[in-house]
Amino acid sequence: MTTTTVIGIDAALAATGVAVWRYRPAGPGRFYLDTIRTSPDTTPRPARWGQITAPIWPCITTNTLAVVEAVFQGAKGDTALRLAELHGVILDGLHRRGVPYVVVHDKQLKKYATNSGAADKDLMLATARSQLGHAAFPADHDQADALWLLAMGLHRYGQQLLPGPVPRWRAKVLADVGWPPGFRLHLETNTAREGPA
User: Fold this and answer.
1) 19-23, 166-170, 182-186: which range is least confident on average?
2) What is the structure's pLDDT at 27?
3) Strands 15-23, 63-69: pairing kind
4) pTM recorded for the entire structure
């Protein structure tokens, strides 16, 4: 049986937000949110990469798409390097597992969520809870960003989580992202929706 999964990943060394939606033809779609936390005080960097990715790889199923937030453009020096390393580990891991992925820039994510590319973390969390909370309720900012990434991926491939007609600005953001052409959700997913798993 083919299982379709879409994963939103907001990667950071201290706290990585993950949002997962999984669907099997025999049942409804299910959502899962998590924040993966690591500490620099007790764990060297390569081990932290493993701690962050270990909960992600088991989420991969026979038909999976990953939507990953790009490295924060405002990061500088050592922080920028460390973030780039982590993103490289995640993208390489997805590639090696045959998972199509797309990288979404933070301004695109914020624009899709709030119609403002300058939205702060509190607004991203508040809009996720008010507009996507019926599907999965994020506990923190990291989960909120991951859930918005997941919502973008589902929306692009035919499973809109947001109520009502699609605003022009939201459709434009989706059109500006370089989505993998070979991925598709199964037709049965058009009506699949369930609360948090």
Assistant:
1) 182-186
2) 66
3) unpaired
4) 0.91
Half-sphere exposure of 153 (CA within 13 A, CB side): 31
Q: How far apart are CA 52 and CA 85, in angstroms?
A: 12
In terms of Cβ atoms closer than 10 Å to its own Cβ (0-12, 13-18, 19+), residue 175 is exposed
Lowest mean pLDDT among 15-19, 103-107, 187-191: 187-191
- In whole angstroms, what is the distance from residue 180 CA to residue 195 CA? 27
Residue 20 has a pLDDT of 98
Closest by CA to 68, choosing from 34, 105, 108, 41, is: 105
Encoded tokens for 68: 């990953």
CA angle 159, 160, 164 (to 5 degrees): 145
In the predicted model, is pLDDT for residue 10 greater than 80? yes
Nearest by Cα to 87 from 70, 99, 110: 70
DSSP string over the chain? ---EEEEEEE--SSEEEEEEEEE-TTS--EEEEEEEE--TTTS-HHHHHHHHHTTTGGG--SEEEEEEEPPPTT--HHHHHHHHHHHHHHHHHHHHTT--EEEE-HHHHHHHHHS-TT--HHHHHHHHHHHHTTT---SSHHHHHHHHHHHHHHHHTT---S-SSPPHHHHHHHHHS---TT----GGGGG---SB-
